[in-house]
Amino acid sequence: MNLSGEGKVLKDWRRCICCRKVAHKNEFWRVVKAHPDNLITIDLGKTVIQGRSAYLCPTASCLQIAQKKNRIGKSLKAKISEEIYQQLESIAID
Length: 94
Fold this sequence. Notes:
Layout: E1 13-15, E2 22-24, E3 29-34, E4 40-43, E5 51-56, H1 60-68, H2 71-76, H3 82-90
Antiparallel strand pairs: 1-2, 3-4, 3-5
């Protein structure tokens, strides 16, 4: 697997913003700053949401790190509301 741009790149693979795990994008939560309205939403895969994305493992440990170190906010270049973290917490594994 090569994500650096050299050789064959595997399509649809992403990296967790906390633990740096590389996996297929379906294994992660996708938090999106939607374009053009800049609303922060969680993409549950039902519809395509265009915009800047951050991928996160669906575990409580990665969520805690993301919240403590503001990883989602830094990745999306936006302020993340407590409501988003609460929504993710309610569906976290662990």
